[in-house]
Amino acid sequence: MRVGLYPGTFDPITLGHIDIIRRAAALVDKLVIGVAINRDKVPLFTLEERVAMIEAECAELSAQTGTEIVAHPFENLLIDCAHDVGAQIIVRGLRAVADFEYEFQMVGMNRALDNSVETVFLMAEARHQAIASKLVKEIARLGGDVSKFVPPLVHDRLCAKLAL
């Protein structure tokens, strides 16, 4: 069984994330969405809220693709999380050159820790490449319309969280 791990904070999950999930689901039998607990970041949504949004958004996608898609919170090293879930592949999304530079360093470190786990880079469709959770939250906080960047359920939860 080919298991992939797509890690991130997903605060919140965006249409760009979902596009990467859809593409990754075509490559593996099981896709684990690793929901990072990062003590250095202060997420807008709790871990439980982020996991619930991922599960809700991925349920139909899992049924469509036939790929098992599960959310898995983690706080340890990414390579250790890959071991925990039995992943042979780490999936990373790329948006721009700046992403590549950071990801290149991460791949090097992960390969030094365990060279049996491969990293695969996927690019979202062009219309989703500029979407970043950080920017979505900032636009929403300032009263902008983010409905074209996130699924309807996430949009509603974002508006409720920010009392818009």
How would you describe this structure to a colleague?
The protein has 164 residues and is of the alpha/beta class. The chain has a single domain, classed as Rossmann fold (3-Layer(aba) Sandwich). 45% of the residues lie in helices and 20% in strands. It has 6 helices and 5 strands, in the order βαβαβαβαβαα. It has helices at residues 15-25, 47-65, 78-85, 97-113, 133-141, 152-161, and strands spanning 3-8, 30-36, 68-74, 89-94, 118-123. Strands 3-2-1-4-5 form a 5-stranded parallel beta sheet, with helices on both faces. The longest helix is centred in the middle third of the chain and has 19 residues, at 47-65. It is globular. The N and C termini lie far apart (44 Å). The model has no long low-confidence stretch (mean pLDDT 94).
Record the SSE blueprint.
Layout: E1 3-8, H1 15-25, E2 30-36, H2 47-65, E3 68-74, H3 78-85, E4 89-94, H4 97-113, E5 118-123, H5 133-141, H6 152-161
Parallel strand pairs: 1-2, 1-4, 2-3, 4-5
